[in-house]
């Protein structure tokens, strides 16, 4: 026996007892013990862990996996060779193990997830560099600490489960808040590092690290509180929210607390000349008609279309928003995992300025509804930046709009087995037949765009006004937003003369509706044009 990649040692010199345990809803486990030793070793098996039987004079079976010991040592990745009295015994055991694995129903995670996607996903989060990126997100980490320590009554003397613990930072916060026990559940190999941190911080008596998928592991009690950081870009990407809800159903006591408890997706139209030009120009290479004797231009349009099938993740100026956002709320206390497989968000925007809609922008909030303090974590544009940033779905055919018009449409999120979503965007102008735009984007394949962070608002409780201005009864935030967009509206005055807000701009020189094909969002002569780098400059027509 030895850690993977090291020379093998010997586990037991005397004959040992070998048990195969297969429980419904859990992966099979192999348990090895001997009367000559106080230790027992246990391996969690999956379809790849029973590797081979070799003829070495007697049966020889090699098993790979993560072992735990009865002596409380940290889990370690091991390979073990088991020598049976005869080869027949080894072959028989392998058949039994394979049959036991095949008989166990797939977990909810395995049923919804492509195996390669799962390997890549847990491989990424099993790296310390990925964990460091999240830990160093000051807004994320400090907000979670404030939510937990600011609501000590929800943790003092309580049992807590941490879903997807990573290196265990949320478990440490729960322990600092006085939790009696914290079950830290982690599927990736980072669980070993979490266990090492727990031991180094002398909290092994409180924090119990369990490696495995939350859909498959078991813990020995129901918990009073569930903590997790299950959010991906656009809140739902990576589909970890479904695991969070399954943990709620499996482990949380009735009426128990969830941190976070509610998530809100915000959707708003945006106008961004620079981004649109950048995306269109990205495919100009494929317009080349003479490339070493080959005409590439037949691929120009397909290449451009594919650029617009990739969401853009960056930080942008909130002044690029054309109007307030539509909200879609997910209550983690009551939603079912099935609710997250298909999410449809109806859109309806009252336009108050001349603009060209280049696509839809998305961000999200989550709320920690503690008994003492309500804490909100926001990823809104203009708020302090997070590692999630914001997400934008650009449209190949922008939509020109005028004040007084109403834009309607929908966003449809359809989950897939790659732990992500296909995003369908549809927008039209109400009462104007034939003027519409749409796109289908792959949330699994975003473009990460370098951008300059903005910090217009410094409060962690900052919230963006919604379409009905519910978060700002005095209208002050909405007024500030409109003032910030005056330069944008001035640009649109010159542009609207060509567009009349009744058609779509076509980057290939053709027009649709009553548009005249003019470049989108050009400022009128002598007026101030918006500079995405935060400065205003005089532009000439």
Count of β-strands: 27
Give the helix proportion (percent range): 10-25%
- The 3D shape can be described as globular
Rg measurement, Å = 28 Å
Structural class: alpha+beta
Strand content: 25-35%
Termini separation (Å)? Answer: 76 Å
- What is the tally of helical segments? 12
* Low-confidence residue ranges: 1-8, 46-59, 68-72, 453-502, 505-541
What's the oligomerization state?
Answer: single chain
Output mean pLDDT: 79
For the report, how would you describe the main beta sheet? Answer: 7 strands, antiparallel
Describe the structure.
The protein has twelve helices and 27 strands. With 541 residues, the chain is an alpha+beta fold. Strands 1, 2, 3, 4, 5, 6 and 7 form a seven-stranded antiparallel β-sheet that branches. Strands 13, 14, 15, 17, 18, 19 and 23 form a seven-stranded mixed β-sheet that branches. A hairpin with a 6-residue loop joins strand 3 (29-33) and strand 4. The radius of gyration is 28 Å and the shape is globular. The model is unreliable at 1-8, 46-59, 68-72, 453-502 and 505-541 (pLDDT under 50).
């Amino acid at each position: 026996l030895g850690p993977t990649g090291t020379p093998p040692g010997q586990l037991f010199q005397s004959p040992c007892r070998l048990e195969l345990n297969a429980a419904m809803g859990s992966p099979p486990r192999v348990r090895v013990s001997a009367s000559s030793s106080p230790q027992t070793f246990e391996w969690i098996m999956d379809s790849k862990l029973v590797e081979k039987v070799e003829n070495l004079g007697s049966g020889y079976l090699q098993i790979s996996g993560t072992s735990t010991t009865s002596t409380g040592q940290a889990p370690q990745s091991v390979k073990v060779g088991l020598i049976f009295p005869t080869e027949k015994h080894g072959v028989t055991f392998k058949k039994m193990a394979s049959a036991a694995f095949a008989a166990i129903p797939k977990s909810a995670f395995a049923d919804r997830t492509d195996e390669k996607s799962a390997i890549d996903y847990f491989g990424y989060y099993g790296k310390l560099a990925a964990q460091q990126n999240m830990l160093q997100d000051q807004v994320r980490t400090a907000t979670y600490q404030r939510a937990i320590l600011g609501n000590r009554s929800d943790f003092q003397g309580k049992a807590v489960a941490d879903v997807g613990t990573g290196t265990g930072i949320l478990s440490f916060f729960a322990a600092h808040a006085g939790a009696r026990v914290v079950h830290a559940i982690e599927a990736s190999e980072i669980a070993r590092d979490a266990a090492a941190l727990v031991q180094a911080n002398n909290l092994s008596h409180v924090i119990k690290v369990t490696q495995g998928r939350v859909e498959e592991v078991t813990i020995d009690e129901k918990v009073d509180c569930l903590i997790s950081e299950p959010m991906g870009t656009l809140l739902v990407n990576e589909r970890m929210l479904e695991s969070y809800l399954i943990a709620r159903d499996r482990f949380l006591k009735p009426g128990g607390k969830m941190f976070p408890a509610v998530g809100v997706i915000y959707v708003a139209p945006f106008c961004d000349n620079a981004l649109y030009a950048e995306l269109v120009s990205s495919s100009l290479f494929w317009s080349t008609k003479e490339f070493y004797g080959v005409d590439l231009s037949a691929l120009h349009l397909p290449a451009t279309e594919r650029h617009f099938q990739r969401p853009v993740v960056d930080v942008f100026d909130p002044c690029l928003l054309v109007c307030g956002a539509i909200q879609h709320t997910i209550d983690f206390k009551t939603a079912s995992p099935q609710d997250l497989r298909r999410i449809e968000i109806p859109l309806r925007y009252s336009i108050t300025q001349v603009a060209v809609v280049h696509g839809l922008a998305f961000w999200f909030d989550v709320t920690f509804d503690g008994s003492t303090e309500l804490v909100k974590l926001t990823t809104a544009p203009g708020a302090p930046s997070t590692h999630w940033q914001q997400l934008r779905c650009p449209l190949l055919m922008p939509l020109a709009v005028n004040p007084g018009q109403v834009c309607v449409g929908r966003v449809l999120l359809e989950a897939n087995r790659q732990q992500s979503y296909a995003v369908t965007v549809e927008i039209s102008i109400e009462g104007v037949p034939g003027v519409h735009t749409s796109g289908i984007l792959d949330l699994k394949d975003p473009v990460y765009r370098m951008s300059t962070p903005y910090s217009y608002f410094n409060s962690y409780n900052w919230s963006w006004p919604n379409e009905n201005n519910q978060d700002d009864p005095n209208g002050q935030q909405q007024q500030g937003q409109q003032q910030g967009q005056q330069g944008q509206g001035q640009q649109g005055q010159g542009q609207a003369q060509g567009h009349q807000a009744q058609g779509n701009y076509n980057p290939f020189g053709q027009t649709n509706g009553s548009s005249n094909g003019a470049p989108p969002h050009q400022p009128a002569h002598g007026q101030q044009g918006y500079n995405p780098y935060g400065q205003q400059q005089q532009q000439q027509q």
